[in-house]
Amino acid sequence: MQGNSIGFWILAALCIAAAVQVVANRNPVRSALALVGVMCCLSVFYFAQGAEFVGAVQVIVYAGAIMVLFLFVIMLLNLGAPNPMMDRVGLSKPVALLASAVLLGSLAFAGALKIAPGRAVKSPVSGTVQQIGYALFDPGRPWLFAFELTSVLLLVGVVGAVVLAQRRSD
Amino acid sequence: MSGYIPIVVMLCLAALLAAVMVLGSHILGPHKPSRFKVAPYECGVTPVGSARERFPVRFFLVAMLFIVFDVETVFLFPWAATFGAGDKGIKLFLLGEMGVFIALLLVAYAYVWQAGALDWSEGARVQHEATPPEALAVRTPILFGNEGSGPVNLPAARPSGAANV
Amino acid sequence: MRRDIDVMAEIAFIYPLIALWVGACLLLLLARPLRRATRPGGSAALAGAALLASLAFLVRQGNEGLNVIAFGGSIAGDPLTASICTILLLCGMMAVALAPTYLAARGYDNPEYYVLLLTSLSGAMLMAMARDLVVVFLGIELLSFGLYIMAGFVREDARGGEASLKYFLLGAFASALMLYGIVLVYGSSGSTNIEALRSAVIKESVQSAMFAGGLALVLIGLAFKAAVAPFHQWSPDAYEGAPLPVTAFMSVVAKIAAFAVLIRLADSLAPLHATWLPAVRLLAILSMVVGNVVAVAQQNLKRMLAYSGVAHAGYLMVAVAALGSSHAKGAALDTQTLAMSGAVFYLLAYAIMTMGAFAVLTYVTGTGAECQTLADLKGLARRRPAAAYGMAALMLSLGGVPPTIGFMGKLQIFWAAVAGREMGLAVALALVSVVAAYYYLRVVLTMCFEETGAEPATAGAPRAAGWVVAISATAVLVLGVMPGLLMGLIGMVR
Predict the structure, then answer these.
(1) Residue pair C246/C300 in contact by the 8 Å Cβ criterion
(2) Is the pLDDT of residue A6 over 90?
(3) Domain end among C267, C282, C303
(4) Contact B104 A64 (CB under 8 A)
(5) How many residue pairs bridge chain A and chain B with CB atoms within 8 Å of each other?
(6) C319 or A48: whose pLDDT is higher?
(7) What is the ipTM of this complex?
(8) CATH: 3.40.50.740, 1.10.540.10, 1.20.58.1610, 3.40.50.2300. Which one for B5-156?
(9) pLDDT given at position C218
(10) What backbone phi and psi angles, to 5 degrees, belong to C265?
(11) DSSP C47-92
């Protein structure tokens, strides 16, 4: 157990260091790569908590697909070079610091007061792929309908991407 | 479940291996830099212009479509893992569930196809956001051999790429 | 897995949704021939057919659809659901009728527009049907995705792009907050099902800070979608920049869907009113005051109607507050019925009035430049008398002048507030109505008594938009005189 928590703290430190890099680095591409680091650390946390499926999805979808999209956006906007314009935003830094201080403070406060959930939720299934499949595709549970709705949502996403990216058709 | 220790050990090993490889080649390898050696490597062709170039919006479109279909495959994993269990009726039901899901995404795919979003031929390009003109401007390639006769187009030689944002 | 579930019966319950989705898929598959057709309007006709089919399925369900619980309790039917879905479908038909001429004049009468409209509407209907917060969230996203894209549909128009982007960024932020709220609610109560939440509330009174925080975030997310002050900042810009038919659609449908969820949550979580009632009261007051006061200063009608929408959201919040308050003070059951039916009646009234007002603007716009400022309406009574009379009726109704549906709606909410002993809100409602009357009447005066030298061409007025104006103006007056005609629809709400 002791070793486990040491491992956790090392990974947590890595994760936070990468997250700070995401915000602090001047070069957007490096920020994006640091974000990959954050995602991978999170994925390890999920795995260690027994949420294997979520951990894998974190890598496949976030660290994979979404980061590719981020990089394309950076290149689309040609943000590759550090942009001096970004330093001009004067007030945003203190406000951001204040906001994170408030969030950290409220977390610490909640931790100190032990504002625990009214009823601790035991994870209803273990997070293996198969268990999630049983929960997701059972017609007696609400998730099946939500799953089918997702496909309509994805359809709209595809249509929206094409509509916005294409020129007008004459 | 399994805990963090193996992960940390694995991380350390990976970091160690990477460090040994990079440092090792740095220490052991000979260093005789020339102008062409330090130029960015673009498949053996002389670099043309800055690598920091504005991408056409079509890359972005493809990336977005990729995410959508990537999310679809994510749902396929638990489905495939569940499919083995249960009798024939349940299997049929599961097949129907995924059939509806896939059918809707096939409609999306058919739409994308007919809209020409996957068409990268020259004729289709006019329909999309054009690449900015300076990115299309042809630069005379400088061939290897006539050393010193012209400047190699290193990134620094080009006017700032951020100017056309 | 359980096998005793009659899946076919459950699927039959969502036939109205399936009709919309099938229509959307057909539009996508036929996109190419539809775009190349020589006569425009094919896409609109197909979308209209899908809406009609959906309405037919809804009507055919009749009373059977009123007590269905489907898909593991994630959606269910009841009178509130049925009436909201009917209103939404009618709005969808009007929005489809407004679109073709306007879009064709700009070269954008594409099938994609109607695909987005149909899926958006299905999202709104899902929100009305949902009994599970996860489905509520998916419905909101389905509704919003379409709206974000439709707002920027005319891509040469930079303001449309701006509207689309602003709406998207703020909307995504609000969705994220709401999702976080749902997570907190789930974490503290162990369920996302609204009925299960209700029983958890009654049995063990989950009154932890976490639950309250989650509920607050859900409320913020819904208030954003309904454009309730102070979460309304996006609406004037989004309304102004979006194409007129889109503004008409989003102003009405998003608000109705969000209020459907708010009403249901207020009804289900009424035992927990101590947590949320003060917040709802505050939102109601802020919304009524901010909406009406800022609307006075607007010269642009789209912005004015945006702020008027904020004000109307405030009136509806009064009904929601009355719903909780009637429970708080142990009032009789019919007080809750009064609040609920009042809210639904007002939603219908708001839909007709606002849709009609935007239809007038679309009608006057025709194929030309968008008619959107007060100055554009000068002398309308002489240029297009029919449209001006229609607009006058709609404006009087929006202002709550008798004998219009707007007056009847306000009266019902006023009664509900009095019966729920929300005296402060009732007085505020009456006071701000006076301010409201001013800026709506100003539109009427501008149309009738101010003249422009220019004599614009009268050709090119879209006939479909004209029909929408005629129907909504008639409905506003007829239902204002005989609100009993609606009681078949509204009276069964509870």
Answers:
(1) no
(2) no
(3) C267
(4) no
(5) 181
(6) C319
(7) 0.90
(8) 1.20.58.1610
(9) 95
(10) -65, -40
(11) HHHHHHHHHHHHHHHGGGGGG-EETTTTEE--HHHHHHHHHHHHHH
